Amino acid sequence: MAVERSKWGIIYCPKAGITNKRKRWEKIQKVLDARDIAYDFVQSETAESVERLMKMMINNGYKTIIIVGGDSALNDAVNCLMAEESEVRESIALGVIPNGVMNDFARFWEIDGDEIEETVDSLVKHRIRKVDLGCIRYSNVNGERCHRYFLNCINIGMTADIMNLRRQTRRLFGSRTLSFVSSLFVMLFHRMEYKMKLKINDVTIDRKVMTLCIGSGPGYGQTPNAVPYNGMLDVSVVYHPEVVQLIEGIWLLVTGRFLNHRSVHPYRTKEVLVESAKHALVGIDGRLMKTPVGPYRINVEQEVINFLIPE
After folding, report:
1. 130-147: pLDDT as tens digits
2. Secondary structure, 3-state, 89-136
3. CB atoms near residue 146 (< 10 Å)
4. How far apart are CA 259 and CA 275, in angstroms?
5. How far apart are CA 267 and CA 283, in angstroms?
6. Strand 287-289's sheet: what is its strand order?
7. Distance between CA 305 and CA 116 in Å, rounded?
């Protein structure tokens, strides 16, 4: 059943590990109701359900869809949108109220998850910016051609390994903090290198690489100069530093000066060809994906999503 064009469709994605998931939504609901915003909301129970709920919102005619979630939930939403015809995509504006662990894409636009009133007020103004999406095109284990879009970044190698370690250690410890510390400890004392062959512009890289970040957005600090509206991808290739240099690199990452590290080699391009990266895991917008089989290509599609941004 179609809905009136002004009504928002809201998909609430609770943070993993939060016991009182309703409390966060009640705070948001109070702000929405105080501003007399017409909306319908549904709650996503699992990561797999976001795309299903997004599809439902699109089919029911919602023209403003708000994701209350993090980077991975936004990733699911844009991939669902990209499965639609361009006329449908053009009619829909996507917004976010940050509710994830990192919220890197929202942070790029200075959208603060703790400032609910300010965020909702900016969404009401309906200021649209067309944004780019990166896209990885690959083959799966069955030889089928696949693709997946990303708003923020793709990580290949060590950073994707840390995502995997955090997932495993979180099941063991039941704590995000403990899982991060234990993953960092393993990273410091376990040498992680991957033989890769890459083509970036007219440069061929054929050597061991510690981690590779390809960002349409800030890439969790690894592609800090990337912007999601210039039709380009920023690439950071990181060779393996010594332990002291690795600690220095973490400090530069935290302080926003990652590209200053001697082991980081930055590029800007429209396309990256990964000819080989054996045993290197791949993470996309903060979530581990199944490792592609054989070569894969990463490019950018310019201005394909209507995204609601602050003034």
Report:
1. 999 999 999 999 999 999
2. HHCCEEEEEECCCCCHHHHHCCCCCCCHHHHHHHHHHCCEEEEEEEEE
3. 15
4. 24
5. 19
6. 264-269, 233-238, 211-215, 153-157, 282-284, 287-289
7. 23
In contact, 272 and 236? CB cutoff 8 Å: no
- Give per-residue pLDDT as tens, 228-263: 999 999 999 988 755 444 554 454 455 555 565 677
Q: Measure the CA–CA gap between 219 and 301, rounded to whole angstroms.
A: 17
Token output for 14: 């609770």
Contacts of 234 (CB under 8 A, 6+ apart): 214, 215, 219, 223, 225, 226, 266, 267, 268
Cα 186 from Cα 270, distance rounded (Å):
34
What would the two tokens of residue 76 be?
Answer: 């699911």
Measure the CA–CA gap between 108 and 92, rounded to whole angstroms: 21
SS3 189: helix
User: 3-state class of 6 per DSSP?
Assistant: coil
Decide if 150 contacts 285 (C-beta within 8 A): yes
Residues 6+ apart with CB under 8 A from 85: none
Mean pLDDT of the chain: 85
| Torsional sign, CA 253, 259, 260, 261 | positive
- CA distance readout (Å), 83 to 53, 62, 143: 14, 16, 21
